[in-house]
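Anyone able to model this chain together with arginine?
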Amino acid sequence: MLYRSVQDIDFEISELPRLPTPSRVLMTTPDHFDVQYVINPHMAGNLGTVDAKAAMRQWESVKSTYSDMGLDVQTVSGQAGLPDMVFCANQTLPYLDHRTGVRGVFLSNMYADERSAEVDFYAQFFRGEGYETRAIRANIERKFEGMGDAIWHPGKQLLWGGFGFRTDEEVYHQISDTLDVPVVLLYLDDPDFYHLDTCLSVLDERTALIFPGAFEPDGLALFRRLFARVLEAPEDESRSLFACNAHCPDSRHVIIQKGCSRTNALLRDAGFETIEVETDEYLKAGGSVFCMKQMFW
Ligand code: ARG
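re: yes, here you go
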């Protein structure tokens, strides 16, 4: 059930089992957030430049945006020596098994050694919430970075799976077999868009926001086949303001980095309400809103 091109598609979105919209949000305190190494191009030139006070203020405002929307926000404590741990979309892929109702997470095999120790803290958190935890077993060498690359189609048991930089294609066999879900594979090869969540934001069951320049023709055709509307963010807002790292938790409000004015206009024309937040300190590390949270049930 891995799909690489439109010709492979043998299902309709409407036929797929339902995935309930998660109403809980996990965030990680930024006390130890910083740029201390370079593992993506956005981090270059930003070593040691994080303003801790501004980072805390920006994180608090993202957090209150979620709680003001009525979502239940939980926090994990950031740990000394793990400056990227605040990006809590990357260490796990939460799932809800459509055959059994079991809640679980796949645990990531982080691409960079600097981030490997982050995963255990999230395994602990999710076990405490009654989740099962599963290792990626394709092969110990296979990399996987959770919801940085693997993104659920809103409301449906269908996974969009990015690979190329941080995640190896092979892991999607295991995920698809274990959960009995189709996975649409998307190859990434522009280093600025090293995670799928940097160039794709799924807004609702019918609508996606993408930066088209980050995808191959097969990938673009898959979006157009499986989403009724595909909004295209401009290059400058995508590359430097992470426009496509916006997050729409409720099919209606889109939380997005401040200053993406043309993307905002596209979103509003499509009927969404935008909520602008400042994540400038996090952009220095190559992340914005979508990376700073993990949704779960
Ligand atoms: N500095 C982090 C890294 O390169 C940023 C991760 C951002 N997360 C995301 N989901 N795109 O791993």
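The longest strand covers residues 24-28.
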